[in-house]
Every structure is written in structure tokens, then in C-alpha cells.
Amino acid sequence: MTAAEKRKFLRLDSLHLLDYILVDNDGNEGEYSMGRTLDVSINGIKMETVKEIPMDKNLIISLGIEENLVDISGTPIHSQPHDRRYISGIEFFKVSAESRTILRQYVDEFQARKDTLLRQDDFPPQHAQAV
């Protein structure tokens, strides 16, 4: 595998990683953690985390694709345990036009990768559904 192929492979594999900060109702930032994208749309994200997402907090989620990084605010819709981790649905709000452009690129890249993995039967079926 060439260096360019490795870089492309790593970029596609790391596409699903994200980080987030919990924010209370007064806007104070709290705990920082990481997770991974299970599914994403322009309106929200289904993510897997090690810790449960509290329903009374908002999140600032950092998503990146190539050199572009975007912070998007969201509110939890659900968070449930699954295989010693948590699956949470987050609905986005406060998405600027510039952020929406990067988010659309992230969604398109994620969906293309998911479609490829589904065709190869290499994507866990429980994670193949929308948010």
C-alpha cells in the first residue's frame, strides 16, 4: 500500500471519530470526551460514547473532514446503554451557513463510506439505521 493509499484509508476510517463538550443550561462548558459517528444527517447524529450523555445538557460536537473542522451544538434526544457503551441521538441546533456546508460534506462522505461497507457486508447492521 502506497503512502497516499494509506493516508486515504486512514482518513476514511477516522471519518467517524468526533469529540464533544457537555454544556449546561447557563452555557457553561463541562466535561470533554470522544465518541464515534454511527449515523448522521444534516439535522442530527447518532453517536456511540463510553459515557452516557445526560439528557439535561447540550453538547458542542466537533466534526472534521480533511482539513475542515466544525463545531455544532446539539441537544440529546435519547441515550441508551449498548454493549458497555452508550448510543445517543443528538438533534443539531445553531448551525451557521458555513458550518452547514462542512456538515453536508461530512454527511455525504459518511453516507458514501457506509454504503460501501454495507455493499461489502462489513457494517454492523444495528448501526445501519438513521438517527
> How many strands, which pairing sense, and closed or not: the largest β-sheet?
6 strands, antiparallel, barrel
Give the termini separation.
Answer: 35 Å
Please state roughly what percent of the residues sit in beta strands, choosing from under 5%, 5-15%, 15-25%, 25-35%, 35-45% or over 45%: 35-45%
What oligomeric assembly is this protein in?
single chain
- Strand order within the widest sheet? 1-2-3-6-5-4
Output the structural class.
alpha+beta
In sequence order, what are the helices and strands, one letter per element?
A: HEEEEEEH
Total beta strands: 6
Work out the helicity level. 25-40%
**How many domains make up the 3D coordinates?**
1
The assigned CATH architecture is Beta Barrel
The CATH homologous superfamily corresponds to predicted glycosyltransferase like domains
Q: So how many helices?
A: 2
Mean pLDDT: 82
CATH topology: Thrombin, subunit H
Rg calc: 15 Å
